Amino acid sequence: MAAERKVWTDQDRLQALALYCRLTFGQLHRHRPEVIRLAKHMGRSANSVAMKLSNYASLDPEVLALGKKGLYGASRRDRLLWQRFIDEPEVVAQECESAWSMLDERGEQDEEATDFTGHDAVVWQKRRVGQSLFRKAVMVRYDTRCVITGLRHEDLLIASHIVPWQARPEARLDPANGLCLNALHDRAFDKGLLAIDDRDRIRISHELADVAPNGQLKSQLHDLDGQRLSLSELNFPNREYLAWHYRECFRR
What is the C-alpha to C-alpha distance for residues 4 and 251, in angstroms, rounded to an integer? Predict the structure, then answer.
């Protein structure tokens, strides 16, 4: 039987979803090294795997929000798995990790495409794993839009952890522990120079006010203080996480 017609198992779909969340839209093609490696593991052609990844793209709100299109033709099982990922991202992330670990047991694990669990792994250096699945789940929930500025550009948006990675291991892959922020405000949030209070207002640290910002920096940071966000319409993030960040991280 031709490789392209080989039946897709549930494990195959989980492995493909794991890889999909690791790549950008422009990398979903048969010449991409990670796609070639996964195809080899599955006994398929790289074109077959690339098509499956593009099927997922057609279901991805993040892709649609950015004005892009995937390859239509996702199967019923593809759609069911994607919906489960949207509804239960932490559960499906663990299933992806388990499916991917089967590749490791065969002795040919791809270090650059195995970022699918919620713990620290040691390769050449200590790095976080699970971030790609967390990012995808957060982007989908925020319609791929910065919650502060409304910016939409995948290269400038970050899925920011509200409670830091090291503080609560159990919350590392929880999308409710995420905010979609642009790079500048993500950095300020991470450093405790920006926070969100219990009335959903942006708070800017006095440290920034004391430097008397002007020009674009003034409008992008200083003038945001007190601005209210429409988080109640989103039903996330988790208010407990926001309160923890405001209490423990914000540099008043």
Answer: 56
Query: pLDDT, tens digit, for every residue of 67-115?
Result: 888 888 899 999 999 999 988 988 898 898 888 777 765 544 444 444 5
What does DSSP say about strands 126-128 and 157-161: parallel, antiparallel, or unpaired? unpaired
| Nearest partner of 174 among 162, 190, 188, judged by Cα | 162
What lies within 8 Å, CB to CB, of 76 at 6+ separation is none
> What is the enclosing helix (H) or strand (E) of 194?
strand 194-196
Tens-place pLDDT, residues 28-38? 999 999 999 99
Domain limits of the chain?
9-106, 132-248
Task: Locate 233 and state its tokens.
Answer: 């319409």
